[in-house]
């Protein structure tokens, strides 16, 4: 089987070494760079499956690299996990908004990091929304019939709630900011809907009852649908 290749861009040499070791031990092929410019060149040369991207880098920072990767059709589908320090929530929101897949906050354990890496790779860089039925813990979202059932019982959602739940559940484990969610679910007639995502999420959770924690709140960032392997 082909090894997944991970590019690691991190300016702190000791952290880089630890992460590189953990990734290699898990069977990943790893390439590394210690600053933004070298990182971008490395990614273009190596075409990795995933980039672990430190946000605070000298020169070209993580957000700029992320933006460049997403703007280039050759690198757009590469998955990105941002590596951030505590207190960089606004950068996380920005990064997720421009297409990063996930993030981890330092300090993190190698185990936590590996779980995030595997989860993102499992989901793949490009998502499709082809399934007509999503099923989880007794919750069934039937896209064709536009229906949600909870342990066999139909629950009534507004059109906006249905779109939101469907969208979140189609991307389990992925964190979305409120802006992400709004832009994905709001249609042209959006002027008639309440643009406050929190209100809709609260209402969905109430209807999901004891399964309400399927939708997780990510403090100061946004929401995500619980990943099966969490
Ligand atoms: Ca750094």
What does this 3D model show about the protein?
It is a single chain. Helix 6 crosses helix 8. The chain has helices at 13-25, 36-46, 62-71, 89-97, 110-123, 159-170, 178-185, 197-208; strands spanning 5-9, 29-33, 50-54, 79-85, 102-106, 133-136, 139-142, 147-150, 153-155, 175-177, 215-218, 222-225. It is of the alpha/beta class. It folds into two domains: 5-123, Rossmann fold (3-Layer(aba) Sandwich); 133-225, Winged helix-like DNA-binding domain superfamily/Winged helix DNA-binding domain (Arc Repressor Mutant, subunit A, Orthogonal Bundle), CATH 1.10.10. It is elongated. The protein has eight helices and twelve strands. Mean pLDDT is 88; it is low at 125-129. The strands form three sheets. Strands 2-1-3-4-5 form a five-stranded parallel sheet, with helices on both faces. It has a four-stranded antiparallel sheet with strand order 6-7-8-9, with helices on one face. The site of calcium ion (CA) has 5 residues, from loops.
């Amino acid at each position: 089987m082909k090894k997944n290749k991970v590019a690691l861009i991190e300016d702190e040499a000791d952290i880089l070494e630890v992460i590189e070791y953990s990734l290699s031990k898990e069977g990943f092929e790893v390439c590394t760079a210690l600053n933004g410019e070298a990182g971008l060149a490395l990614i273009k040369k190596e075409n990795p499956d995933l980039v672990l991207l430190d946000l605070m880098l000298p020169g070209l920072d993580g957000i700029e690299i992320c933006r460049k990767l997403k703007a280039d059709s050759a690198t757009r589908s590469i998955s990105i996990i941002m590596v951030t320090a505590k207190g960089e929530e606004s950068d996380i929101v920005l990064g997720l908004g421009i297409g990063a897949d996930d993030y981890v906050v330092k300090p993190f354990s190698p185990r936590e990091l590996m779980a995030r890496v595997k989860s993102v790779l499992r989901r793949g860089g490009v998502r499709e929304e082809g399934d007509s039925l999503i099923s989880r813990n007794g919750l069934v979202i039937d896209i064709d019939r536009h229906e949600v059932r909870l342990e066999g019982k139909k629950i009534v959602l507004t059109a906006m709630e249905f779109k939101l739940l469907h969208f979140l559940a189609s991307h389990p484990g992925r964190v979305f900011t409120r802006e992400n969610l709004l832009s994905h679910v709001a249609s042209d007639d959006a002027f008639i809907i309440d643009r406050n995502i929190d209100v809709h999420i609260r209402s969905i959770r109430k209807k999901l009852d004891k399964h309400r924690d399927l939708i997780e709140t990510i403090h100061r960032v946004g929401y995500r649908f619980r990943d099966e392997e969490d």
